[in-house]
């Protein structure tokens, strides 16, 4: 049995603010250790349920946060930021299930820890086939395109609520509750990891009850940026239409091929932002 794990950082046990999740900041090194241990708990749960192959894809910031020598040796790992499927790099139809570890709520979710969607700087709202999605909803649709169900998501309680609406039957572990977007009340990481291990096992054993989501023959995505200049520049890409001031839309047969387009859009916004801010 093959399991794919995408690991973000904002939803890791105990972490609650930028100091915890940005490389070089005061608590980042402690944050990396906590992240590695949450991933290990998910891996141990997967092994408890009979997983034979586990692939971990780093999905936060520079996408090399895991302390490799402390990662459970049963897993292989994809590191590095520059990859076309981004947080879902490595997924294919050979996997039996996917886990999202350390995920966070979509942009604008009140009090959800460090909530944003792909880029706090550039993206205000992402709408996939008429429904607003966060990273979990978007990435679950990518897994769904390969017929892979997302069976476990860990993060704060607001994120758990979001994914339970998006992914019927998904198992969740709420390791903390956001008080504001920059503070939280957390379950002690040791106990949170026990919960992750237990739920990971249960989720995998129950995987036949969780369906892959978002399998559609045609897909449309709307991106509402934070600034009109981002939308203007992005609309110069072939196939991308400017809907109004800050919003663009594009279509694709499958969600998978949308991922590199979204990545390219974010790279463009980075360049435009340098022109705006000087
Ligand atoms: Zn992140």
Q: Can you offer a commentary on this structure?
A:
- There is one protein chain.
- This protein is of the alpha/beta class.
- It folds into two domains: 2-116 and 134-209, Dipeptide transport protein (Rossmann fold, 3-Layer(aba) Sandwich), CATH 3.40.50; 219-277, Dipeptide transport protein (Gyrase A, domain 2).
- It is built from seven helices and twelve strands.
- The strands form two sheets. A seven-stranded mixed β-sheet has the order 3-2-1-4-7-8-9, with helices on both faces. The protein has a five-stranded antiparallel β-sheet with strand order 6-5-10-12-11.
- Strand 8 (171-180) and strand 9 (183-186) form a beta hairpin.
- The longest helix has 21 residues, at 28-48.
- The N and C termini lie far apart (51 Å).
Q: Which key phrases capture this entry?
A:
Gyrase A, domain 2, 2 domains, 7-stranded mixed beta sheet, 5-stranded antiparallel beta sheet, 12 strands, binds zinc ion
Task: Write a concise synopsis of the structure shown.
The protein has two domains: 2-116 and 134-209, Rossmann fold, CATH 3.40.50; 219-277, Gyrase A, domain 2. The protein is 32% helix and 25% strand.
> Which fold name corresponds to the CATH topology of the largest domain?
Rossmann fold
Ligand inventory reads: zinc ion
Largest sheet, in brief, is: 7 strands, mixed
The neighbouring-strand order within the major sheet is 3-2-1-4-7-8-9
Oligomeric state of the chains in view: single chain
Please state the second-level CATH architecture of the largest domain.
Answer: 3-Layer(aba) Sandwich
State which percent range the strand residues make up.
15-25%
SSE sequence, one letter per element: EHHEEEEEHEHEEHEHEEH
